[in-house]
Amino acid sequence: MILTMTQFIPPLKPCGVKDANCVHPTSIHKFAFFAAMYCLSLGTGGIKPSLESFGADQFDDDDPDERKGKMSYFNWWNAALCGGLVLGVTIMAYVQDNFGWGTADLILTVAMLLTTIIFYLGKPFYRYRMPQGSPLTPIVQVLVAAVRKRKLPYPSSQDSFYESANPQARLLSHTSRLKFLDKACLVVENEISEGKKPSPWKLTTVTKVEETKLIVNAIPIWFASLLFGVCVAQGGTFYVKQSGTLNRKIGNSFVIPPASIHAISAFAMLFFVVCYDKILTPILRKVTGKERGIPILRRVGIGMIFSIIGMVVAALVEKRRLTVAKKEQTRVLSMSVFWLTPQYFIQGVGDAFTLVGLQEYFYEQVPDSMRSIGIALYSSVLGVANFYSSFLIVVVGRVTGKFGSSWFGKDLNSSRLDKFYWLLAAMNGLNLGVYFLLTRKYSYKNVQRKVVVSSK
Question: CA torsion sign, 273 to 278 to 280 to 286?
Fold first, then answer.
């Protein structure tokens, strides 16, 4: 809304546009712009993890049919996001170029208003989960209790472990990894007295211990996902810059906006997400006999392989572009922008595997009380990866500049993005090896299911 106001209210209009009353930006211009950017960032950071996890919470985990529906939910959530991305980089980009930013901002503001109204109209029909207190306190309690009992011998039987008798709670089964945390639920003599609950700082339940293990296990997966996020970041930065130097004409007059080429990746992801949900998943369920088809982390790993292939293809295409640029010596080359199609398509397929898989992972494989935080962790992978990408560019530019010509020159034709893409492919290859070691014997959340008769 603030961005829309800056396009129509004369004192707020950016300098250089029609009817603007200034030559250089003033303090009010800077305040309005940055206020809009911070509001967008805060709003996006709040709504994305909360809304996505709220949508997944509408499914009952104890109902087999609804549980399968939840597995499809993340696919269709991302299909909807891809549809929005396609509209944004095609229709909205065209409106911005031909009718101005004010018209585009106004359309988006009205669309957001309508979607907010529609969301609140459904309020009486939603399922709600009651707050369960601080999600971090039980984790701290497990760590404190485990440290207190660190010198106790590990029991030979699980009968010595304490578990809650609450029939309403979703209980987790014990796993054999990270055994040092198990001592937090180890019952010692006189620790439990009749009619009195033990202190959670001295004795916790098996479920709380297993929830803590889930968080500990998620940390290395988060770090191993960062390099994939760096590859994703290239699609919205260097790939778009490359498209600006290529022939974007269709016919005699229509010119594709540089950012619109990103729609290829969205189309690929949209197409493959639907195919995965409707074709691959049913086949994999029959072949493997598993409800999900393939494990979540295996799906993520397959997408990482596609990201490596995408970087290799991007390097080869950029080498070709540099060869043409050296011959033609023009700002816009005769080489078609559709040479970028393979790398965008491969990136879209990789996203369909890894991004959707990571969303499922950070929602499913965290404590129930931390599902919104889990989705926020997924979002932070992409956010931190963008900073990591910028850091890599700075470091690589300085290092290569000391030993000759920097890989990042004053423009793309004097740069060596092809070598940078080869570097990313090599780094992702090494990272993939580490990822497979981390996930080879991964212990997934093991919920003690309640028997629910399906209504269907």
Answer: positive
